[in-house]
Amino acid sequence: MSEEPQGQGWPPRDATVSAPAADAPSGGARPPGQGRRGWHRFVPGWRLVLGALVLIALLLTGGFLAGYALVHIPPANATATAQSNVYLYEDGTLLARDGEVNRESVPLAQVPLTVRQAVLAAEDRDFYSQRAVDPKAMVRAAWNTLTGKGKQSGSTITQQYVKNYYLGQEQTLSRKWKEFFISIKLSREQSKDEILQGYLNTSYFGRNAYGVQAAAQAYYGKDIEEIDTAEGAYLATLLNAPSTFDVTTHPENRNAALARWNYTLGGMVKEKWLTPSERAAMTFPDPQRARSATGLSGQRGYVVQAVEEYLTGDAEGTVILDEKTLAAGGYRITTTLERAKQDAFTEAVTDQVTSRLDGERKTDRNVRVGGASIDPATGRVVAMYGGVDYTRQYVNNATRRDYQVGSAFKPFVFASAVENHSRTQDGRRITPETLYDGTDRRRVEGWSGRPYAPENEDGISYGQITVTEATDKSVNAVYAQMAMDVGPARVRETAIGLGIPADTPDLSASPSIALGPATPSVLDMTEAYATLADHGRHRAYTLVTKVTKDGVAVRLPKRAARQAVSREAADTTTGILQSVVDGGTGTAAQSAGRPAAGKTGTAEEDRAAWFAGYTPELATVVAVMGQDPDTGTQKSLYGAMGVPRVNGGGAPARIWGQFTGLALADREIVEFELLLEPGAWQESSPTASSSPSEPGRGSGSPSRAPSRAPSRGPSVSGGPGETKAPEPPPLPEAPPTVGEAPQEAEGPVTEGVGRPETGEDAPFGGGSDGGAGDGGGPGEEAGPAGPAGPADPAGRPDPGAMTGPR
Fold first, then answer.
1. What is the DSSP letter of 41?
2. Quick one: pLDDT at residue 228?
3. Which domain of life is it from (predicted)?
4. Is the pLDDT of residue 292 over 90?
5. How does pLDDT run across 723-732, given as a tens digit for each residue?
6. Whether 731 and 761 share a structural domain
């Protein structure tokens, strides 16, 4: 080393002392990092590590606290709370479901313990012992997913319930973040049982089944409480991959489904919920094949519609559930309908109408059918036919109130006459054998309103004719006069008492009320005829026997019976209606093979044809209606099904006969037990002559006894085949005889067709047969055309030329 020159003024340098290293700090301090060379220089010191960990902990704690404070438990999503209402037949079997979501929530107690345990074994075995979230499982699931060992959620049952009920199924970090905090909060607000119940009711099991109850029905056709352990394990298996593990729709995945099923049962054994011997005895429970959804097609939609109307406000104004509450879903509704009778109605309509329709025949496009059947002893609706298919024709023909009933209303007039001990204008008591003038267009006597002279079918005059024969032949002139004799207001009151709603359109207190211009529904008419069948005891019809939600029953109103008319009035009416079936316009109903009573009816211009009747056990009404499928307007049935005229004695009576025979096939034949009004079958002749038959018109046949003898009380012999009740006590002296009815009405004459003329006192027109176009024996739709009559004031063809009732 070369020596540097000594600076001037410096002290002498000691040559024995070495100079300090160039990089050594003054004062002898060691430079930082002395001895840490290479990669060690990049390792942080312990102080830095500790500081970082504290910072991270503070951040995590702050984030957790912020998340916990900011994330709230939201309202349930609409899909999770949506439930279908379930409709059942009277025996508890499934009839229909409404709503878009196939779900029926059930309480946890209704789910068998082994089914609950199977779900836990498959999805979360530590559910009851662990916290709402399981970080270890989340990490493990993420690792297995990343390493290709299978995609796993790592979610507890609580987290899955939160996803189902509150958040939905989207796979986002935001949803996972919310799920984490909501699960923690929810676990502090709900018990484990409540969370498990919610999970079971919101999980998807495939086959459009949400919730364990819907799954039990979808896969095994039974309620969840009937599911056994093996079946429950299969339902639990489906939670992992509903579509994949459905062995009927994906048989190629059967081995995978079996492996998952075995895994579930193995977990039950491991948790000691199942013994090894019990497990060894189990075989795989193959589910039933997937069926189409029990929606609203066929008759189901009509039934659901009728039941909804019944629950939200029936004919008596009783509201069981308001519309909004019912629409929320979740109700289990047991109806009064019987599956066998429902099927019988469909079969009868198919055989007698649907099979006879021709798509090339324009009129056949307009044909509609409605029907209903009630047990008279209980008021329960046991069958209903609303139309060919609710998804094609959504208007329920059994409950609509816009078609005239025609002559099917006439029994209410006679029942009112007997109930009120009514007399004719000349003072004779009205009985089945009372003679009336059946002359066509005979003006009604005693009516102070606009002159009213109804037309008989085809303009036929019958002359002197008994009430029984006038009922057999559905003579308008007789019944319009009888309504006046009784009092139109009394007739209306009687009809309402029997079951016709007071607000029925065109139920007006005028003589034409007898001819059926009113438009009650098929179901209304069935209720009224059921009252006659039950000897005058009225019961408002019922469609529902039980309603529950979440296992809690809804209180239903009690339906008490009341005597609407006396038994004598009802039974005497039944007597003349038996004659209609035995030899009148309703003979096609004899195909039922049972004692029957009934009445035909046809609306104005043949727009509807009716048969209303009953046996002692069953009251049924059938209507065939005409409606344009495009515009919804009422149409005539002339020419439908290939016949000139559709009358009540044709297709409606044939449907009635076939249905009644099928519905009662397994029951013994029961005869009517009638208690008739004293003197009911005694002839009561007029005290003054009435209008004779017009030239060329037929006259009434001689009086005859009822076709069926009364089964109660002593009787005296009448004519051949006639049974009469005992002679009644002498009647009070009759009022002065009413003079002969004028042949020509002064002023305009109102026909028995069409709607009323303007003016308060104008009587309403009835059905054009007055319902009179009721003829037709078995296999017939139309009776013979009558002779030509006087020209129609409205300028229409003469009666003999018309092809339909007037």
1. G
2. 97
3. Bacteria
4. no
5. 333 333 333 3
6. yes
